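Re: beginner question about structure tokens

> Can someone show what the tokenized structure looks like for a real chain? I only ever see the sequence side.

Sure, here's an example I had lying around. Input first:
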Amino acid sequence: MRPSFIGALTGIRAIAAFWVFFRHIRPQLVDALGSGPMTQFVIHIASVGYLGVDLFFILSGFILTYTHLDTMTTDYSWKKAVGFLWLRFARVWPLAAFVLMLFGAYFVFQAVSSGDPGFYSQADPVRLLMHLTLINGWFPAPLDWNGVDWSVSAEWLAYLTFSVGVVALLRYRQTASRRVMLVTMMLMMLPIMIIGFSMQDDTILLFGNDSYVTAAGVIPIRVLSEFWVGAILALVTRRYLVPNAPRPASLWRLPVPSITAVSIIVAILLVSTFDPVSNIRAGQSELYRGIDMIAPSESIIILPLLVLLIASLALCPRDPLARLLATRVFLLGGRASYAFYLVHPLVIGAGLIVLSRVGSAGDGPHPLVMGVVLGTAAAAWVAAWLLWRFIEEPARKVLRRMLPESVTL
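And the corresponding structure tokens:
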């Protein structure tokens, strides 16, 4: 039986992608809003926008297990494993490669417009090859070319493990009780939570202390633990997600997704306002126009709440938040979210060029800067829709048709 479509889990992808954008445009938000307590609260939420990637990792494991577990494990063979990887390659690679070419063109534009040939050094051919082969995030390195596609490389690593680990996952579903699964999920969240608490503030669960080089081992631990937590979460909830299945106990009649979302915001504000261990990287500026821009590494504490959010959105379709995320606007945003995530750094760069000519005055609210910020966000979504509609989807369909008919997934 074909799994039911869960609209809210498509819509939440738009929120996750925009959360990352929110972090990357923080200084401009401060310029637009001016300094003050309300701006500080907004920046606290924006500063931990890197957690949108963690939401993606969990969601990816959940959706792939929910969608492919039965089809892949029925007469499992190496052809099915390769076929699964081909479908995932068709989904992520064409657009990632196309946007890399856009970044290359941008580097050339920087060099020509500035007259500084030093900008050509950003177009390192060896690193480009690593990006194109999706292994750029597997080793410690600065975030070069399209800096955000480290997570695409990390996802590809998760896909490789899923293509063979799905057999063990089926056996696990057949033998483990739901209580054992819940305990397993909690244990699997511990490594990245422990590492997160041990890292210096604003290393964004990624960089080594006092550097902008990815810390050895952090990316595999982060993506694999969260991806497989999502996979087991799909096993826990799948009995309630088949058509006409009874929902779990009366607790789920409460607006659990909405309550969870509010709890996430409150937890972020508490951790950011009352940073339990202020451990700022040496030499890093802490304030911008009097606003604290540092994200405490302890923000990883919301990881279990992200897991609960995904589960509750799947199980509580009548919740106000779930209904909102299943509307057409959010569904479209969710479908274009991958393109938005990949292209938004380039659009922000264009916005910064506009802002350099607009300028800002004083510490108070600056409507013109706010207009540019909102325009940048809108332009990023327009660019994302164009890339999704004319690059991502056509390429995916062409590559999907290349899969032999004998491989059923």
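Each token stands for a local structural state, so reading them left to right follows the chain. The longest strand covers residues 287-288.
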